[in-house]
Amino acid sequence: MTKRQTRIFFLGSTALFSLIFLALTVDTHQRIRTLTHSGEITPAVIAGKHVWHRKNCINCHTLLGEGAYYAPDLTKIAEQRGAPYLRSFLTDPSKFYNETRDRRLMPNLHLTPGEIDEVIAFLSWVGKIDNQGWPPRPILVSGAAIPGSDVGGAAPQAASDDPVAVGQALFRQTPPGCFACHSTAAGVNVVGPSLSGIAATAAARVTAADYTGKATDAAGYIRESILLPNASLAPGANYSANGVSLMPPGFEQSLQPAQLDALVAYLMTLK
């Protein structure tokens, strides 16, 4: 290749890739509003963002992969845990975790009720951003960090089409993210109670005097607990707040009927 040809190749390649970069930049800016749901940025969301920075949350947590990696990524925390849990947790984190038992401690930031609502509004908006799967390997809030938990590692794929195998794999996938709040190890409570022995527990609950749901058997109780978490509140100090279950709603929309059947089939094996 002569010097003239080399010069032409260099200039042509530079111009071509500059045009590609420019086109991608324009396309990105055109899609930002849709990807970020910027039309849903309310004054509460903006105020929550200010609280996030004022309290230096980013010193420990990440959002969309940006921030410190000392504590879990909170990009999808509002979807994983729901507003009732976040409100109760931010009011007093020590009710849920302590350094001696869990080897981690979220400091009490002494947020006002208004600040808590603003932070929840901000995190709810962040969770709706189409992050295109980024970060690819976020640090998740889950039972994997609790000593004695049997949940951890990469989300598995079902070994077969057997409903129990499908349900077991589904339990550790996001969504629905069951592992983010529940462990299947005996005595290991995360946000919700351990699901070890849930089949026997469910069978006992439907006959309990304080049961207010409509299920008549263990499988029905498990199904009801997933779809209608407020039908009958589980006994336990940290499983509900102000008469509202900390189990997030909406699984009737995110789970297909076959997925729900498989999840119930798997949980029924935990006797």
Quickly name the level 1 CATH class of the largest domain. Answer: Mainly Alpha
Q: Average pLDDT across residues?
A: 86
What string, H for helix and E for strand, traces the elements in order?
HHEEHHHHHHHEEHH
Largest sheet: 2 strands, antiparallel
What is the overall number of helices?
11
Spatially, the strands of the biggest sheet line up as 1-2
Strand residue content: under 5%
Integer tally of domains: 2
Short description:
The chain is mostly helical and 271 residues long.
Please, could you describe this protein's structure?
Helix content is 45%, strand content 3%. With 271 residues, the protein is mainly alpha-helical. It has 2 domains: 25-127, Orthogonal Bundle (Cytochrome Bc1 Complex, Chain D, domain 2); 152-267, Cytochrome c-like domain (Cytochrome Bc1 Complex, Chain D, domain 2, Orthogonal Bundle), CATH 1.10.760.10. The longest helix has 34 residues, at 3-36.
Features:
2 domains; 271 residues; two-stranded antiparallel ribbon; two-stranded antiparallel sheet; mainly alpha; globular; Cytochrome Bc1 Complex, Chain D, domain 2
Layout of secondary structure:
Layout: H1 3-36, H2 43-54, E1 62-63, E2 66-67, H3 77-81, H4 83-91, H5 99-102, H6 113-127, H7 163-171, H8 198-205, H9 218-227, E3 240-241, E4 244-245, H10 251-254, H11 257-267
Antiparallel strand pairs: 1-2, 3-4
Helix pairs in contact: 2-6, 4-6, 7-11, 8-9
